[in-house]
Specification:
three-stranded antiparallel sheet, alpha+beta
Length: 262
């Protein structure tokens, strides 16, 4: 009874799809979060007669006879569309407009990448993430700073106590990837480079390959999850799961009737 196993693969695939949707909904308010979608592909088909095979009448079968054996997960695609931007008035909240990521130094010395611009100052005045990971290149804000100004190109300037001028203390550099969808999510709003993403391309916002990119101070990028769209996808996945369950039930009833034949 192929239908029993085929419908089981469909139910498993929709269960995985619901898991993906649930994660998107859970992160609807996560700054810089990029939604994920599940992609499917059919499994092998069982061939009873190949197309073009010679028939008993001496003719050639134009289409053949095949039956599919179900569905499987082919990929989980990260969708890097920009989310909406909200003003916070916090001078260390930064939103990237355009293509690009911030560089973050992890405790093991490797570099991770994020679109989440909720930065803070640690005890040494260094710009860090909410988990205390350093922004790269490292930028230190003097303790006596009374104002922090971050330009669209990432220049970080401060006005210190008793001074009327702004002094540059560093510049935030952007990175991009030829295939951002190939980045691996490692939690904490961070991604890491993989062979599928390609190597990081570094540059300055507003110049060269980052000509359409800017860093906006006092703003945050929201998640790009559209809650209505996700709920529609959830309903569709639920109905598909129910349909596969009914096929399994029907297959079970057929097997039951066969067993009851005397």
């Amino acid at each position: 009874m192929r239908a029993l196993y085929t419908s089981a693969t469909g139910a498993q695939a929709q269960q995985f799809n619901i898991d993906i949707i649930a994660n998107n909904v859970a992160n609807v308010n996560t700054s810089g979060y990029k939604k994920t979608r599940a992609e499917f592909q059919d499994l092998l088909s069982q061939t009873f007669q190949a197309a073009g095979a010679l028939t008993a009448e001496g003719t050639f079968d134009p289409v053949g006879v095949q039956v599919g054996l179900g569905v499987g997960i082919s990929a989980t695609q990260r969708v890097f569309l920009e989310g909406s931007v909200v003003q916070t008035a916090n001078p260390l909240d930064l939103a990237i407009q355009g293509d690009g990521f911030f560089q973050i130094l992890q405790p093991d010395g490797s570099t991770a990448y994020t679109r989440d611009g909720t930065f803070k100052r640690d005890a040494n005045g260094q710009l860090v993430t909410s988990d205390g990971y350093l922004l790269q290149p490292n930028i230190t804000v003097p303790v006596d700073s009374t104002e922090i100004v971050i330009a669209l190109d990432g220049n970080v300037m401060v006005r210190q106590s008793g001074s009327t001028t702004l002094n540059q203390v560093g510049q935030i550099q952007m990175v991009k990837f030829s295939n951002a969808a190939g980045l691996e999510s490692i939690g904490r709003n961070l991604f890491k480079e993989t062979p599928g993403s390609g190597t990081a391309i570094q540059g300055t916002a507003g110049t060269g390959q980052f000509g359409d990119t800017s860093i906006n101070q006092g703003f945050l990028e929201n998640s790009n999850v559209q809650i209505v769209e996700e709920l529609i996808n959830l309903i569709a996945a639920q109905r598909a799961f129910e349909a596969n369950s009914k096929v399994m039930r029907a297959s079970g009833e057929v097997l039951s009737n066969v067993n009851n034949i005397v």
